[in-house]
């Protein structure tokens, strides 16, 4: 057993024992803010798919995807209880704060994981269920247990788990995986590093204290700023892509261009402003806008589908 693993086991063992937790504590285990992003992106994949589910089955599929994401969050909090306890941003979470015992969080997360996958398979199809199971496994095992503590590229590779919901929903509706859903996954995948690294520029001391090799800790803030700018530049044209593969219409094209340019502009500010409170302020503004950026792209796709606005191009057929 490695030194890091020994420390993790000792820290978890030292946490307070079981206590009476409220409903709000179990809701906190599900990471509701992250879940809200999952719901929006999965709903977009579900609605944009060419073959829709019955509304009731669609609602069940969306619930399963959301619960699967929440289960991943609970298992993440179970495993990361040791580092959460020493980080100011996470010390108040239910497990490190002692309101929920580690074993209870583990049982809660595993139950929801298995239940969400089985329910999605039974109500939609097993391709979607398999993708959901892969998403949970990737986030919990590949990212949380391995990458997060071993490489500064943790959020780059691990971001795939958070990017998968549109594809899971697309598969639930169609029984296939299309190019369109892959593009939606790619947008979230490319968005995740600059979004998260902007937060890391503000919370770098937290990660350093916990021994997590985030890019800001290993490579320093200036290299992190450079990487944020590079990802923002790559994300801008990718965000426009749905308008040219039969997903987005004229409204989507206009919005994606505007928010893409603004994302790059804010990344340039972060790159240039490197000292003092202004640097932290710039990073905070980029982090906040990144949430608006992602919600805007997916929400506009939903609006276009809801009001029947036509896509700019014909849908691409014949890809898986």
From TrEMBL:
State the UniProt keywords alphabetically. Answer: Cell membrane, Heme biosynthesis, Membrane, Transferase, Transmembrane, Transmembrane helix
Instruction: Give its localization.
Output: Cell membrane
Write down what this protein is called.
Protoheme IX farnesyltransferase
Organism in which the protein naturally occurs: Hansschlegelia zhihuaiae
Q: Which reaction does it catalyse?
A: heme b + (2E,6E)-farnesyl diphosphate + H2O = Fe(II)-heme o + diphosphate
What CDD domains does the entry give? PT_UbiA_Cox10 (cd13957)
Q: Which GO terms describe its biological process?
A: heme O biosynthetic process
Its annotated function is as follows: Converts heme B (protoheme IX) to heme O by substitution of the vinyl group on carbon 2 of heme B porphyrin ring with a hydroxyethyl farnesyl side group.
Indicate whether Membrane appears among the record's keywords. yes
Q: Cellular component per GO?
A: plasma membrane
GO: which molecular function terms? protoheme IX farnesyltransferase activity
Q: What class of enzyme is it?
A: transferase
| Major subcellular location class | membrane
Q: What domain of life? A: Bacteria
Q: Does the keyword Secreted apply?
A: no
């Amino acid at each position: 057993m490695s030194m890091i693993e020994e420390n993790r086991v000792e820290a978890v063992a030292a946490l307070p024992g079981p206590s009476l937790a409220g409903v709000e504590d179990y809701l906190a285990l599900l990471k509701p803010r992250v879940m809200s992003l999952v719901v929006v992106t999965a709903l977009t994949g579900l609605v944009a798919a060419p073959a829709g589910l019955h509304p009731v089955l669609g609602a069940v599929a969306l619930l399963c995807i959301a619960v699967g994401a929440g289960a991943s969050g609970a298992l993440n909090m179970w495993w990361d209880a040791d580092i959460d306890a020493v980080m100011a941003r996470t010390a108040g979470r239910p497990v490190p704060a002692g309101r929920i015992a580690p074993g209870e969080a583990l049982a809660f997360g595993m139950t929801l994981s298995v239940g969400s996958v089985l329910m999605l398979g039974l109500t939609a199809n097993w391709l979607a269920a398999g993708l959901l199971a892969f998403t949970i496994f990737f986030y919990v095992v590949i990212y949380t247990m391995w990458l997060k503590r071993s490489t500064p590229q943790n959020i780059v590779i691990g971001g795939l788990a958070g990017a998968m919901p549109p594809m899971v929903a697309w598969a639930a509706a169609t029984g296939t995986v299309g190019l369109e859903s892959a593009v939606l996954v790619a947008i979230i995948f490319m968005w995740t590093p600059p979004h998260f690294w902007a937060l890391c520029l503000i919370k770098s001391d937290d990660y350093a204290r916990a021994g997590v090799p985030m890019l800001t800790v290993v490579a320093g803030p200036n290299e992190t700023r450079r990487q944020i700018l590079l990802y923002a530049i790559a994300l801008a044209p990718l965000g426009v892509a749905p308008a040219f593969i039969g997903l987005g219409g004229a409204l989507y094209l206009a919005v994606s261009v505007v928010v893409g340019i603004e994302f790059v502009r804010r990344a340039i500010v972060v790159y240039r402003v490197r000292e003092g409170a202004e640097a932290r302020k710039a990073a905070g503004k980029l982090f906040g806008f990144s949430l608006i950026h992602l919600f805007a792209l997916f929400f506009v796709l939903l609006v276009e589908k809801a009001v029947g606005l036509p896509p700019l191009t014909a849908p691409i057929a014949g890809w898986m």
